[in-house]
Structure formats: C-alpha cells, structure tokens
TrEMBL record:
Pfam families: DUF5618 (PF18498). Residues 13-131 form the DUF5618 domain. It comes from Dyadobacter beijingensis. It comes from the Bacteria. InterPro entries: DUF5618. This is DUF5618 domain-containing protein.
C-alpha cells in the first residue's frame, strides 16, 4: 500500500509517533554521534524540525478535543501558549521546553548536544499522553 494511502487512516497520536520515529531514525542513521555530540548539524536540524512538528500535531489534537467546534489552528507559538494557559499549565511547561530544545536549539541554532535533542524528544513523548 502506498505511504500516502496508509497515512490517511492514522490517528493524530499515530501520526505524531510516526514523526518521532522518523526523527529518531534520522539521528541514528545520519547525524552521527561521538562524545555526547552530533557530528552533522544538517541532520540534527532535520530531525529537530520533524520532532517539533510531532509536538504541534499533538497540540492541535489536544486543543481540538478541548475546544470542540470552537477550535481553530493556532497561528504562532504564542497562540499555542496562551490557549494552553486556559487548559493545562503542565502541558504548557512541557511545550516551553520542547520549543527551547527542539525548535530553537535544535532546528534554528543547530545544537550538537545529544542531551538537548534527546530531552526535547522525550518531552514530545510525554505530550503524547495528553491525547
């Protein structure tokens, strides 16, 4: 079965899991790791963006469940944070860490720190429990 046909049947949680698995695979197969640092920043950025996208998929589903027919897709990280303030402050704190670790440090700045990226990915897995 083609990948696109298969993806239509996935739940938001399954799709987020797929993104996380893709990110893990990019890191393990292409980024290279030595002494707690990744060797190839290009692949760290790619994996970080993919894992961060999983977080946004999770948040969209979480907000859709909470807001029902009033749900509209947030347009910025600030919008996500404001809306989470109304629903779950623990999830808001997790998002703040994911944003810092994966979006800013990993994707935007291209950190080489294995710990930073792994912490971010671990927090995205935590977010999965919310949907």
């Amino acid at each position: 079965m083609p990948h696109s046909a298969q993806n239509t049947a996935l739940t938001p949680a399954q799709e987020a899991e797929r993104y996380l698995e893709n990110a893990r695979q990019i890191l393990s197969e292409k980024a290279g790791k030595k002494d707690g640092l990744y060797k190839d920043i290009k692949y760290v950025k790619m994996a970080s963006g993919t894992a961060y996208s999983a977080a946004l998929l999770i948040l969209d589903e979480y907000l859709r469940q909470r807001e029902g027919i009033h749900f509209t897709k947030p347009k910025s990280i600030e919008d996500y944070m404001i809306r989470l303030t109304k629903h779950d402050k623990k999830l808001l704190r997790i998002l703040a860490n994911v944003y810092d670790d994966l979006h800013l440090a990993g994707y935007y700045h291209g950190t080489r720190s294995v710990d930073t990226i792994q912490n971010g990915m671990s927090r995205v897995r935590q977010m999965l429990t919310y949907i």
